[in-house]
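Run log, item B.
One chain of 686 residues. Sequence copied directly from the ordering sheet:
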Amino acid sequence: MNAAQTVRRTAIAALAATLFTVVLTPTAANAAPAAQTQPIAWSQAFDLPDVAPTLSGVVSGTVGLSTHLSFAQTDQLSVGWDDSTVKQGGALDPIATRQPGPGTLTVDQKVHFTGTAGVQGSTVDISFPTQNISASTPCSLGADGDTATCVTDSSDVTVIPPTCPDIPASVPDANTCPLDPQVSVKLRTTSTFSVSAVTAARMLHGAAGSVDLGTGQPVTDTVSVPCTTPVGDPLAYELSSLSLQAAVHTVTELVWTVTVSAPVVIPVFVPVPPTFSVPGAPNIDVYDSPDTLAAQDSTLAATAPDVSFAVGAVTKNNVPPTVSLDPMFTGDEGSPIAFGATAAGPCAAGATFTWNFSDGGVAYGDQTTHTFTDAGPFTGQVIATDVTGLSGTADFGASVTNLPPAVTVTPAAPVVAWGRSLTLQAQAVDPGSAEQSTLTYAWDFHDGSAVTSGGPSEAHVWADPGSPTVTVTVCDRHGGCTSKDVVVTVRARTTTTSYTGDTTATYSAPVTYSGSVIDEFSRPVVGATVGFATGSTVLGTATTGGSGSASTTVADTLSGGSYPLTASYGGDSRYVASSSAPVSVTVTSMATAVTYTGTLSSKPNAKIPLSATVTDVRGVPLPGQTVTFTIGKQTVTAQTGANGVASTTLKLAQKPGSYPVAVSWPGAAGTYAAASWTGVFKLNTK
């Protein structure tokens, strides 16, 4: 047995021992096992790239080679499952097992050669045209990672036939026929397959739909019957897109056999040791050796038709879901409390959840919320219904914490005048709406008055300005209380001051200034000091009585003219200051009188006394006034004294006769009017 035969036989033994198993779902001991077996036929044909190597040595020349490979193998695929799991939500767990079967590798090649062979120092032309050569060999591929080597040897093809007939060894003339070469050739192809993957797309089919179990290297899967599968629906387990993949390393050799015929045994010299036939044979085997033409790498991706296994009709799910959740949930009244539950079971995925609460509330979903309107312990039950209509329940409790009400007071920054009523409104909202109608209110004004327990609003009066604090406390029926303080601004009352006195006056004569002060509520301000002034000049003050009026009479100190006069109240801790609008007051000068008290007759050239009295209209003497005396053409002046009398003398320098006498004074601008007196003076003869 040569080396090639040994390799071939070893490879065949290895392939026969391989086993590839696709385990989709491992199962425990099946209560009701079922199995089906179907053949799967792999096939793949592919070409190797053409090569044109150049040979050198005993055989020299150029080779052209085309190679086409065809692979086919039939395996057995068995699928087993548990019949009791062919139901809604059942763990079907099919186990697929592939048993490699026999295979064949066919090599179709085209080869041609142009060259020579060396024989005893001579060259012999051994060229041949294109030859079509085909050979097959058993070749079976196993599981992932297995290696199989498949060798195909074609039959010998005679390239150069002998030209001399066989010469018996008894022929005495050894030179009757010269050396006669005979050349034959065959192709040897060694293909090594390294299996890399056996893949399939796995699918569970039913009338209501399909479940994709994945594509790729077969792995351990868990395959459950969809819970939405109708009862009685026939199921089929299908493997499609089957692919047997391997890396292929192919070595192609051209195997030569060169012999010569001769009448006698002769020595033959070739570059390599020849293989001689037995002594005395007419044909001598001078060359038997391969030439490697190509070592090529390629890939195999053999495919097989889809296979389907009838699993059986689906039965109804009989396992209701089991509900799990926390036994107690907690939260605050008036706020959403989160509730959650899970369901387990063959068809629990996609289950619907209904929550029933002891306060009458209902919610839905595996995760939900519920708001309790009161505090206290509550109970409930959640119902989980799976897609097959089976239900499971679980009870739970809820502990809801009481919260005090939220309180605001309006107005938030109250302002009121003293002595006036202010109504405060407490707006309270309890987080538990069921407690809203039970809220109680207590008001404390912190001024010694009794705490008032009543409704949400309360009125109060403060006697004096200030910033008192008011506290309202609101409680629910569970004893949750909230106190809210509000600071009240009790302000002074605003006032209005009006001028009601004289608007005309005479200088130095009595004048009455009057005014009134009332507050913003038209009530008189009693005891208010009212000042009367023009500009910065205070003319007088007065205090208001019970009616809010104030009046004073004083001698006018203003000179003649018009003046803006205002009445003003300075205010105090209870009242705000105010002033009247300016009122125009007109002042006139006081009338005066001049009375002549001197002599009205005299002798010529005599020195006569002159006198006159100046008084106002009331007869009050006006001192310090300049009085002018005129008699005829003579004039003299004099100043009035404290008694208003002006006295002087005049020496007459006129002829006897009667002359007009005039006494005058010009008055004081803005205060006193001018005045004069007239008469007749008699100047007697001697």
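Observations after the first pass:
- The radius of gyration is 71 Å.
- The longest strand covers residues 234-261.
Flagged for discussion on Thursday.
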